[in-house]
């Protein structure tokens, strides 16, 4: 079931990136990211008792070698798609502080490691 949802979502994101590449003078649309640890850019850093990725070895290949909360050694898939769309990185984490108008125009990342629709998912996290 997950594959059936992931494929169209990924195709949509790649299509938007391709349009942004074809028209570099057009401002990219806001990017609102939902998902699990593959897209989390630090939302879990603000949950007590949640899995966190703000310690090494996470982030060792990220600029400055800093662990930002991404569950990877550097960039996530959403970072790559955001760069193709014309952004520097994936939008900032929703829980990382007060949002400005500029943040909303760029988009917001709601992804959280261990998230899922089924109740059993949180038991595995």
TrEMBL record:
GO molecular function, one term: hydrolase activity
Signal sequence, start to end: 1-22
This protein's record includes keyword Protein transport: no
Keyword Hydrolase part of the UniProt annotation: yes
Keywords associated with the record: Hydrolase, Signal
InterPro entries according to UniProt: GDSL_Est/Lipase (IPR051058), SGNH_hydro_sf (IPR036514)
Protein name (record): GDSL esterase/lipase At1g06990
Phylogenetic lineage: Eukaryota, Viridiplantae, Streptophyta, Embryophyta, Tracheophyta
Gene this chain is encoded by: At1g06990_0
């Amino acid at each position: 079931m997950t594959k059936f949802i992931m494929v169209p979502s990924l195709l949509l994101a790649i299509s938007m990136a391709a349009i942004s590449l074809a028209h570099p003078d057009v401002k990219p649309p806001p990017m609102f990211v939902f998902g699990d640890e593959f897209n989390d850019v630090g939302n879990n850093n603000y949950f007590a008792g949640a899995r966190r990725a703000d310690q090494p070895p996470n982030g060792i290949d990220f600029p400055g070698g800093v662990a930002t909360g991404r569950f990877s050694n550097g960039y996530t898939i959403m970072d790559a798609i955001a760069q193709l769309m014309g952004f520097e990185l994936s939008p900032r984490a929703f829980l990382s502080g007060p949002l400005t108008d500029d943040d909303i125009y760029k988009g917001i990342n709601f992804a959280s490691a261990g998230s899922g629709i089924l109740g059993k998912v949180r038991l595995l996290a």
